[in-house]
UniProtKB/TrEMBL annotation:
GO BP field: methylation; negative regulation of gene expression, epigenetic
Top-level division of the source organism's lineage: Eukaryota
Keyword Transferase: yes
GO molecular function, one term: histone H4K20 methyltransferase activity
Transmembrane segment boundaries: none
Methyltransferase found in the keyword field: yes
Name of the protein in question: SET and MYND domain-containing protein 5
Keywords from the named record: Methyltransferase, S-adenosyl-L-methionine, Transferase
Organism lineage string: Eukaryota, Metazoa, Chordata, Craniata, Vertebrata
Amino acid sequence: ALETAEENAQRLLGKSSLVLPHPEQCSIRKDLHQQCPRCQVTYCSAECRQAALEQYHQVLCLGPSRDDPTHPLNKLQEAWRNMHYPPETSSIMLMARMVATVKQAKDKEWWIKAFSQFCSKTANEEEEVVHKLLGDKFKGQLELLRLLFTEALYDEHLGRWFTPEGFRSLFALVGTNGQGIGTSSLSQWVHACDALDLPMLQREELDAFIDQLYKDIEKESGEFLNCEGSGLYVLQSCCKY
């Protein structure tokens, strides 16, 4: 997570004046955060920013076009936000990172082979996966996504991924193998507070504060509180579902 526990709670509660006790129990180190100097995307550390730059971010960096709604990558993300079923928010950009990784790689065939190791489906199974992600209008939506994806990221080494059949297969690959990743700096802060050795009265006051905080947040934001991402893991894809 890039938010501190207090920032996380303030956003979920819709109350910027909220102050959390025991701020030292928050594990987020904002002093270590770094931004891409071109597009201001924020990373948790210099190491994370450098790893992204070396693997895929050179292709996906929007530079001064970060807020330009006509940029192909922004058009792709906006279309995805308007059509997918929640909470699958990051699948399309996971696919974009796959393409960008191949485009940046010196050994493109190594990465293509690595991605081919993930569990695949038959054509009928692929269609079922896509239908679950996009709903009843999935065929028209998938074609729109393919056209926008092609406009933003086309690469001749990956020509098959941009055909109707190849794009559906890629979409189903991510839908089948993608692992949701949830983080919550507020939850981490609560666990750290639970471990504090406090006098009984202070413990009761802190527990009551946390209980009320969660009740208030649920009223404002609902039950799903994690920041969400998605990733591909080779070992997990070997498991039978």
